[in-house]
Design goal:
- The longest helix has 24 residues, at about 25-45.
- It is globular, with a radius of gyration of 29 Å.
- Helix 14 runs parallel beside helix 16 (about 540-550).
- By secondary structure, it is an alpha/beta fold.
- It is built from 22 helices and 18 strands.
- The strands form 3 sheets. Strands 1, 2, 3, 4, 5, 6, 7, 8, 9 and 10 form a 10-stranded antiparallel beta sheet that branches. A 6-stranded parallel beta sheet has the order 15-12-11-16-17-18, with helices on both faces.
- The protein folds into 3 domains: about 120-220 and about 250-420, Catalase HpII,  Chain A, domain 1, CATH 2.40.180; about 490-590, Hemocyanin, N-terminal domain (Up-down Bundle), CATH 1.20.1370.20; about 595-750, Rossmann fold (3-Layer(aba) Sandwich), CATH 3.40.50.880.
- About 40% of the residues are buried.
- About 30% of the residues lie in helices and about 15% in strands.
Length: about 750
C-alpha cells in the first residue's frame, strides 16, 4: 500500500505505522496526537466567548480526523494524481476533481483594498464603564457595564497587502461593534486629523502617494516625487504632514498607538438633544515609537513585526487594552472655536475640551482564519446605530459613498454583509433578495413592502422601539461647489503640533522631512515644500532647506488647489497663531511610562552564565508581564555554572537588537569571555552598540566589564539612567524603571556620538 504522510508528521509515526493493519488505525493515532497538541490552544480560545464568537462558531469546521472531500462532499481517494489516458498519457477533461481544485486555486485571491491593504486584526470586547445616556441613545454606550463584541483591524495606508509593517505611514484603526441594534463601524486612524478637507481630493492624494505609474516605484513609501509634488501645492495637508513625519508614523507596536475617529460626529439622546463628539482610544501601555534607523532595520529582519507582535501578545494573554474617551461639545457651541469643527484637518485641543474616559477596548482573541476574518471584514462609516449620526464634514460625506462602492468591487457582491465576520448578531430582516453568493434563506412569498400577503412584515420599527431616524436639521442653501471660508486656515494647528513636541521629537520630525525630501529628484518640489514649512516654523524650514539643497523662499501662491474660475487670493491661508499655543497631549513625552507589560527583553548569554542571577532577574521581569528571550552564540543549549540548561530562542546572527526593547548581558566571567571570542564578539558588540544608539535600556550583569569596555558605551561622558551596572541591590529595579520609560530620547545626541 502506498503511504503518503505530511512532512509535518514525525517520522517515528511512519515506522510506527508498520505495526498497523490499515490506514484507519494510523489516522486514528495521528488524530489523537493532533488533538493532544491542539488541546491547550482550543481551551485558550474557549475561555473567550460572546454572541459574535458563538455566531461565528456556526460557520467553522475542523478537518481533524476527517476524510478529504470535494466541495460537493464527495470523498477523494487520490489527491496526488490527475486523471490520465494511461500512466504517461494526456490528462482528461473529465477530471472534475482536478478542475474544481485548480479553478478554486485560480480564484483564491480577491482584489485587495485600494488603501489600507496591509492589515492585522483581532476579536475583542468593548465595555462602557460610564453611561453616556445623557448624550446618546446608542444602547452600547448608554448602559453602564454593558459589553459589546468587536473586531478591530489596524493597517497601513499606502502599501500593498504584502508590504512591510514598518513603512512611515498613517495606521488605520477600524472597529466593528456588533451591537444589539446592529453593527456600528468606527473607521478611524492613529492620527486625529487627515491630509485633505474634501473627499473630492482623496483619489488625488492616494494616486500621489502610491507607486508612480510609470515604474511602480516605490512600494509603501511617501518619499518620492509625486507625493511631495501634491503636498507642496496643498497647504491644507501641512498639519497632517507634521503628524506623519513625527514618530507617530513608526509605532513600536500596534498595541502602543492611539486611535481616533478623525471626524466630528453627532450624539443624539432620547430627547433629541444634539452634541458634537470626537472619539479617542488611548492605549494603556502608552504611546511609544521607534527610531527611523531602527524601523528600517526591523523591516529587513522581520517585516511582519507588528502583525506578529499583536498575535503573540494575544496568544500569551497580554491582551491589548485602550481607554475609550470622548470630547463632547454642545450643539450651540459649534462656532466658539478658532477652527471649524467640520474641518477634518483640525483637532480639538484637550486643553479646550478635555477627553472624558468612559470605556475600555480589549483585544482578547486572534482570528481562526486570516482571510475569512481579517481580510473579508468590511468596514463602513455609514454603518450607524440610533444615537450616532453624521456631520456635514465633506470628507466624511464622500466616504459614505466610497465605502459601499469599494466593498462591492472587493468582495464581489451586494451580499458582503452575509460573510460571517460581517454579519450582525441580530438577524437581518428586509426585502432585499438574490444577488451573487446570497446565503440567507428567507422563507415566504413576499419580498416587498407594503404588503398584505406577509401580514405587512417585515414591518417598520417606531423610534421608541429602536427604529433609526436621522437628526432633523434644517438644510437650506444655494447649490454650490465651493469650500467654506472657515476651512481656509492651514497652518495654525500645524504650528500647534510642532510647538507641542519635545526636543527629541522635533529632531526626529526634522530628520524625517530631510530623509523624505532627499528622495525627491525635482528641486522645485523640494523648494515648495520648504516654503510651506516656513509658514509653520522658520527654523525647521531653514534646517531642512540646508540639508536638501534648496533655499527658503516665500511662496507667492502657497495654495495650488484652486478652481479654474476662483480668485486665488481668497483661498490663501492667513498666518495666524492657534488659540492654544501648546498641547501636552500631543507629545509622546507625556505618555504612560509605568509598565513593562509585554516588553521583549533580550538576555545575552553563553556557557558559564551565572544561573542564579539570570533566573532571579527573569522572574522579576516576567512577574511584571515582560517577555524574556534568550540570545546566545548558537541555538545549542547554554550550560550555566550550576548545570542549568538555558534554551536560546535566537542566535546572535539570527536576530538583532532592533527586535528587543532592552538587553541584559547575563552575569558570569566565563559567559562574557565566550561572548567575546572570535566567533561571537562581532555579534555581541553590534547588539550592544545598536541598542545604545537607539536609546534603549542595557543592563550589564556581574563580571561583564569586558563587554562594556569593548562597546561604545565605555567612552560615555554623560549620566545615563538607562545604562545599568550590576553591583547594588537596586540595579534590577533601575533596569525595570528604565524599560518602563521606553527610551532615553533626551540622550540621543550623546549616545549617537560615542567618544
Amino acid at each position: 500500500m502506498r503511504i503518503l504522510l505530511s512532512t509535518c508528521v514525525p517520522m517515528f509515526y511512519f515506522f510506527k505505522y508498520l505495526k498497523f493493519n490499515n490506514l484507519h488505525e494510523l489516522c486514528g493515532l495521528l488524530f489523537e496526537r493532533c488533538l493532544k497538541n491542539q488541546k491547550e490552544d482550543i481551551m485558550k480560545k474557549q475561555e473567550v466567548s460572546d454572541d459574535k464568537l458563538q455566531q461565528l462558531d456556526l460557520s467553522k469546521t475542523d478537518n481533524s480526523g476527517e476524510a478529504l472531500t470535494t466541495n460537493q462532499g464527495l470523498k477523494i481517494s487520490n489527491n496526488q494524481d490527475s486523471l490520465k489516458s494511461g500512466e504517461r498519457g494526456p490528462s482528461l477533461l473529465e477530471d472534475f476533481i482536478l478542475r474544481e481544485k485548480i479553478t478554486h486555486f485560480d480564484h483564491e485571491r480577491i482584489p485587495e483594498r485600494i488603501v489600507h491593504a496591509r492589515g492585522s486584526g483581532a476579536h475583542g470586547v468593548f465595555k462602557i464603564n460610564k453611561s453616556l445616556a445623557k448624550y446618546t441613545k446608542a444602547n452600547f454606550l448608554a448602559e453602564e457595564g454593558k459589553e459589546t463584541p468587536v473586531f478591530v483591524r489596524v493597517s497601513t495606508v499606502a502599501g500593498s497587502a504584502v508590504s512591510t509593517d514598518w513603512a512611515r505611514d498613517v495606521r488605520g484603526f477600524a472597529i466593528k461593534f456588533y451591537t444589539e441594534q446592529g453593527n456600528y463601524d468606527l473607521v478611524g486612524n492613529n492620527i486625529p486629523v487627515f491630509f485633505i478637507q474634501d473627499a473630492m481630493k482623496f483619489p488625488d492624494l492616494i494616486h500621489a502617494v502610491k507607486p508612480e505609474p510609470d515604474n511602480a516605484i516605490p512600494q509603501a513609501a511617501s518619499a518620492h516625487d509625486t507625493f511631495w509634488d501634491f503636498i507642496s501645492l496643498m497647504p491644507e495637508s501641512m498639519h497632517m504632514i507634521m503628524w506623519a513625519m513625527s514618530d507617530r508614523a513608526i509605532p513600536r507596536s500596534l498595541r502602543m498607538m492611539e486611535g481616533f475617529g478623525v471626524h466630528t460626529f453627532k450624539f443624539i439622546n432620547e430627547a433629541g438633544k444634539v452634541h458634537f463628539v470626537k472619539f479617542h482610544f488611548k492605549p494603556k501601555l502608552g504611546v511609544h515609537s521607534v527610531a527611523w534607523d531602527e524601523a528600517t532595520k526591523i523591516s529587513g529582519k522581520d517585516s511582519d513585526f507588528h502583525r506578529r507582535d499583536l498575535w503573540e501578545a494575544i496568544e500569551n494573554g497580554a491582551f491589548p487594552e485602550w481607554d475609550f474617551g470622548v470630547q463632547v461639545i454642545p450643539e450651540e457651541d459649534e462656532h466658539k472655536f478658532d477652527f471649524d469643527l467640520l474641518d477634518p484637518t483640525k483637532l480639538i485641543p484637550e486643553e479646550e475640551v478635555p477627553v472624558e474616559l468612559v470605556g475600555t477596548l480589549t483585544l482578547n482573541r486572534n482570528p481562526d482564519n486570516f482571510f475569512a476574518e481579517t481580510e473579508q471584514i468590511a468596514f463602513h462609516p455609514g454603518h450607524l446605530v440610533p444615537g450616532i449620526d453624521f456631520t456635514n464634514d465633506p470628507l466624511l460625506q464622500g466616504r459614505l459613498f466610497s465605502y459601499t462602492d469599494t466593498q462591492l468591487s472587493r468582495l464581489g457582491s451586494p451580499n458582503f454583509h452575509e460573510i460571517p465576520i460581517n454579519r450582525s448578531v441580530n438577524t437581518v430582516h428586509n426585502n432585499q433578495r438574490d444577488g451573487h453568493m446570497r446565503q440567507q434563506i428567507v422563507k415566504g412569498k413576499v419580498s416587498y413592502e407594503p404588503n398584505t400577503i406577509g401580514g405587512g412584515c417585515p414591518f417598520q420599527a417606531m423610534m421608541k422601539d429602536g427604529g433609526f431616524t436621522s437628526q432633523e436639521e434644517r438644510v437650506d442653501g444655494v447649490k454650490i461647489r465651493a469650500r467654506s471660508e472657515s476651512f481656509v486656515d492651514h497652518y495654525s494647528q500645524a504650528k500647534l503640533f510642532y510647538n507641542s513636541q519635545s526636543a527629541p521629537e522635533k529632531t526626529h520630525l526634522q530628520n524625517a522631512l530631510i530623509f523624505e525630501l532627499s528622495k525627491v529628484t525635482i528641486p522645485a518640489i523640494r523648494e515648495r515644500v520648504v516654503g510651506q514649512l516656513a509658514f509653520i516654523n522658520k527654523d525647521l524650514a531653514s534646517m531642512v532647506a540646508k540639508k536638501v539643497g534648496v533655499d527658503v523662499t516665500k511662496l507667492k501662491q502657497p495654495n495650488g488647489s484652486i478652481p479654474a474660475d476662483a480668485d486665488p487670493k481668497t483661498l490663501q491661508s492667513p498666518e495666524k497663531e492657534p488659540a492654544t499655543k501648546i498641547s501636552e497631549a500631543l507629545s509622546m513625552k507625556n505618555t504612560v511610562k509605568d509598565t513593562i507589560k509585554s516588553r521583549i527583553i533580550g538576555f545575552i548569554m553563553e556557557d558559564g552564565v551565572i544561573a542564579k542571577d539570570a533566573k532571579a532577574l527573569q522572574s522579576k521581569l516576567e512577574s511584571k508581564g515582560a517577555v524574556v528571550q534568550i540570545i546566545a552564540g548558537s541555538l545549542a543549549p547554554v550550560n550555566a555554572d550550576d548545570g542549568t540548561l538555558f534554551e536560546p530562542k535566537h542566535s546572535l546572527t539570527s536576530t538583532s537588537s532592533v527586535c528587543f526593547d532592552a538587553l541584559y548581558l547575563a552575569s558570569g566571567k566565563k559567559s562574557a569571555d565566550n561572548l567575546l571570542d572570535a566567533e561571537n564578539k562581532p555579534g555581541t558588540i553590534l547588539f550592544v552598540n545598536e541598542a545604545y544608539k537607539h536609546c534603549k535600556a542595557i543592563y550589564f550583569g556581574k563580571e561583564t566589564d569586558d563587554i562594556l569596555k569593548a562597546s561604545n558605551i565605555n567612552g560615555k561622558k554623560h549620566e545615563d539612567p538607562a545604562i545599568i551596572i550590576s553591583g547594588n541591590e537596586t540595579a534590577d529595579d533601575a533596569f525595570i524603571t528604565a524599560i518602563a520609560n521606553h527610551r532615553v530620547w533626551e540622550l540621543e545626541t550623546e549616545r549617537n556620538n560615542p567618544a
